[in-house]
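Final paragraph of the annual report: two paired records, presented back to back.
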Amino acid sequence: MRRTRVKICGITRPEQARAAAGAGADAIGLMFYEPSPRFVTRARAAAVCAVLPPLVSIVGVFVNPEPREVEAVVEGLPVDLLQFHGEEPPELCAGTGRPYVKAVRVRTRDDIVEAAARYADARALLLDAYHDALWGGTGRRFDWNVVPGDAGHPIILAGGLTPENVADAIRFVRPFAVDVSGGVESAPGEKDPESMERFMKEVASVEAGERQG
């Protein structure tokens, strides 16, 4: 079994970035959506990026941005990947020339199938729980049964993941990666180092258990 990658999203301070990298995260997410409690300015994001070790990817997360907002981040920060979490048209997502991930707020299987067709050039689909008032970070799970066996894109599973349920989620969905934010926090925007460590250990336990089996 291949290793499941992990993104810890909503990092707000350098010490959180160090703790996430130290726990073994493959990527961290920086939130450039101002209403979010995990929002970071470009200056704060630069401070976070500066402490990351090599080979930890930096993901810039946006919700319905203006193109100039994305351009400012791409030009000023060493982001490796963009994540669009709103209702952005495909032209905006692809317009920077940077690889991107498209988030899908899932209610039914059709939501995933339609997004896969509409955002054909996305590097992956990030599947999150639907909420009629929030774009993400809801702490809710969606019905994993609706995830197709082959969505035509790598799947990043999000939505209500915690150290307590991430191993079951991986065994059930078999995603390429998992994405966690609130599930490893002591308060919104406050990442808990111990929770991040436990989350990473639970992800690793799936591979270890299947290798032994």
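The closing record of the year follows.
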Amino acid sequence: MTTTLITHAACLAHDTGSGHPERSDRLRAVLQALDHDTFRELDRREAPLASLDELVRVHDATYVDLILGNVPAHGHVMVDGDTVMSPGSGEAALRAAGAVCAAVDAVTTGAARNAFCAVRPPGHHAEPGRAMGFCLFNNVAVGAQHARARHGMRRVAVIDFDVHHGNGTQAAFESDRDLFYASTHQSPLYPGTGDRNERGVGDNILNVPLPPGAGSDAFRHAIERDIVPALDAFRPELVMISAGFDAHRADPLASLGLTEADFAFATTALCDVARRHAGGKVVSTLEGGYNLVALAASAAAHVKALMEG
């Protein structure tokens, strides 16, 4: 078994307009980095469309209808102050969520050891009934519920190392003790959630907020001393990663101060947890990262660690 890469050209057609940080060039940079001889063994697949049934396991049906029903025929529509839709956004969002479901299928059936979904728009800020923070559907949460509904899994964990707290994933998970969400993120920072005292039910939520400029040591300590022991106690049947790379020291939207080596470190640690409890099953999906050079290098380090894990 190898690592599967799932993406789709439709994700490039989600046009956020001139000057928007979550732009198509982000995905182009990631795919170009993965089009290197180092990654020739990747199993490359196209993302399918998520079904409505898959989406409504996480999102309110009225919300799904609202998003898909308001995709513009031309131009742009503002969903909130920084979340944009264009004519290509509907298919892109369905492919992004569908990619994570397909990745779950691949790792649970043994077709792949682990998988990375190079997709956009990102998802971890999307709440069950609200789009925000560049996100339309919560791709990783849709994938987690797909693992339960389609493959009979009970305990699914999502670990989020995006520099921004994944308020949407937390909102989708916090009342279900068999879903676990852990996040490292800069605080204070958008969206203003993710305090340590937000613990869900049965401590199924673990937030490790880090101050601006915290750097590598604090991040690695959070992974080793906070998140890994909690995951070992939870014993997940599937490990999922919200892989945001905007905690990189070169990123323009935050100032946590990490390097690509830190993302590789976290990925290796999570693969180790997956080997202990989940037969090695890991599904990762792209979230943030807005400096193109740093994003490309960080995604490549992440995928290389998956291939080695």
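The chain is about 40% helix and 15% strand. This concludes the annual technical report; the extension proposal builds directly on these records.
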